[in-house]
Design brief:
about 170 residues, alpha+beta, Immunoglobulin-like, five-stranded mixed beta sheet, three-stranded antiparallel beta sheet, extended
Length: about 170
């Protein structure tokens, strides 16, 4: 009888350890503390556009009192293995600072998907990130994922043909 109770106690203790580890890990992943002496904001958080469209974001930098460092900004956009990074230039005091950033949606980005954007501000060892979504719409010319795949296959085929001199 004592063996059975000891076994139950060990199982219960192990289960509690697993639950505590999961809760602590999830808390660290969900709410990381950046400790950065600045924050960055980007609006809109979600938008829709087609390849070739120009989109504009409103950006705002707010800093803690006494911070006067430079902040390097970049916007990284990824979708289905596609990735492009836009350099938003280094921002210098005075802060707070509000400005617009416009860029053209690249023509070779996959359409019919939602691209993830990460606005990253870096100052020394401090990094602050904000996330945006860009719904890449078809231009109505056979776009979408199927159109993108067909274009990719066509480009690969043409590359192979040119490699062999055809």
């Amino acid at each position: 009888m004592k063996k059975f109770n000891l076994f139950r106690l060990i199982v219960l203790f192990s289960l509690i350890l697993v639950i505590l580890t999961t809760v602590i890990t999830c808390s660290a992943v969900i709410a990381p503390e950046s400790g950065a002496p600045f924050s960055i904001e980007i609006e809109p958080e979600k938008l829709s556009a087609k390849a070739g469209d120009e989109v504009t974001y409103q950006l705002r930098i707010v800093v803690e009192e006494g911070f006067n460092g430079s902040i390097e900004l970049e916007l990284e956009v990824t979708a289905l293995g596609y990735s492009v990074t836009f350099d938003l230039e280094t921002q210098n005091p005075p802060y707070p600072k509000e400005f617009e950033y416009s860029f053209t949606i690249p023509s070779d980005i996959p359409v019919g998907v939602t691209a993830e954007g990460v606005l990253r501000g870096t100052s020394g060892e401090h990094v602050q990130e904000e996330h945006v979504e860009i719904s890449i719409q078809s231009s109505g010319d056979g776009g979408g994922i199927l159109g993108w795949l067909l274009q990719l296959i066509s480009n690969l085929w043409n590359s192979i043909l040119s490699l062999f001199g055809f």
